[in-house]
Specification:
11 strands; Rossmann fold; elongated; single chain; alpha/beta
Length: 320
């Protein structure tokens, strides 16, 4: 939290001063009462002692004064507000290792199914583009608000061989730079990259592409799909088959997310992957802005003061 008028906070020293003055006043009242009364008659003259209730209105009064003082200093805070425009680029790994069945039914199928659910939750004004990641990166559909096109693009992705992670990020960065609304506003762009891990081919190193993405203000959030137990079956001549271990690789995706300013997620099951998408849909639907919140402190301070005054009047027939 920051303040436009930080010197106003010096007035907070009045809070303990007021508390001290109240205590002195209470002692004077007690002394004057005892001076003109017989101690033996006091139990008959005075009803139930207020006890600790006497402190409650004072405490509320002091808290209210402190709250109003902070409000007078014009505090600012980071608040979450909805975004009206943004671009999201889905980059989906379609390499051979995504055919592993350690995520039911396969890594690739689970990723596409969860991506479809993600598209339903993304705000309608957002543009969504789809990139396929194989031995080369390619645009399945450019950023569009037409969700049917995005769904069709995901369904059209077919299996490839390599995993050109760096090329996909670089392609997404170029797409992000071209996004511009009718009034010239450049909407924020983020990429969501789904893969089971390490780079296999491509011309651009993932780390270099991630640095370029950060420079272009395009964070790349990565989702690791798969487990260390992934296996793919490759048919051989003569009717034989070869089983190849394809464990999910954390390192590359974690590095990409950290370098570009995005977030890294791990999804070991289809259900976990769906939850990741739901979190991301909520996160990308909002942004953080700096806002003055003096009105919040002013309203809160007045409510607290009135509460203290009301309790004092109800219990003791006077205000403090």
């Amino acid at each position: 939290m920051s303040f436009d008028r930080p010197l106003m906070l010096a007035a907070l020293v009045l809070v303990p001063v007021l508390a001290g003055l109240w205590l002195l006043q209470e002692r004077r009242r007690s002394a004057e009462a005892s001076r003109f009364s017989s101690l033996a008659l006091l139990p008959n003259l005075v009803g139930e002692r207020p006890g600790r209730r006497r402190i409650v209105p004072l405490a509320l009064f002091l808290v209210g004064i402190a709250t109003l003082t902070v409000g007078a200093a014009r505090p600012h805070a980071k608040v979450t507000v909805p975004r009206k425009e943004a671009t999201i680029i889905l980059a989906v790994d379609v390499s051979r290792s995504m055919a592993a069945q350690d995520v039911v039914p396969t890594r690739a199928a689970a990723a596409r199914k969860a991506a479809d659910a993600f598209l339903v939750k993304v705000p309608s004004l957002y543009k969504v583009g789809v990139i396929g990641i194989g031995s080369r990166a390619f645009v399945a559909v450019p950023p569009t608000v037409d969700r049917a096109l995005s769904h069709d693009a995901l369904a059209s992705l077919t299996q490839s061989e390599g995993t050109a992670l760096g090329d996909a990020i670089a392609l997404g960065t170029r797409m992000a730079k071209k996004q511009r609304s009718a009034d010239g506003f450049v909407p924020p762009t983020s990429m969501l990259l789904l893969s089971d891990g390490a780079r296999d081919g491509g011309r651009i190193a993932p780390a270099a592409a991630a640095r370029a993405a950060k420079a272009a203000h395009m964070p790349v959030s990565t989702v690791l799909v798969g487990t260390p137990d992934g296996v793919v079956t490759v048919p051989l001549q003569g009717g034989y088959q070869e089983q190849i271990r394809v464990p999910a690789n954390v390192g590359a995706l974690r590095l990409i997310a950290r370098t570009s300013g995005g977030r890294f997620y791990r999804a070991r099951t289809a259900a976990a992957l769906k939850k990741v998408y739901e979190q991301l849909a909520t996160r990308t639907g909002h942004t953080t802005k700096d806002r003055q919140i003096s009105d919040v402190f002013a309203a809160g301070g007045l409510v607290i003061l009135l509460s203290g005054a009301g309790l004092s009047a109800l219990w003791f027939r006077r205000i403090l």
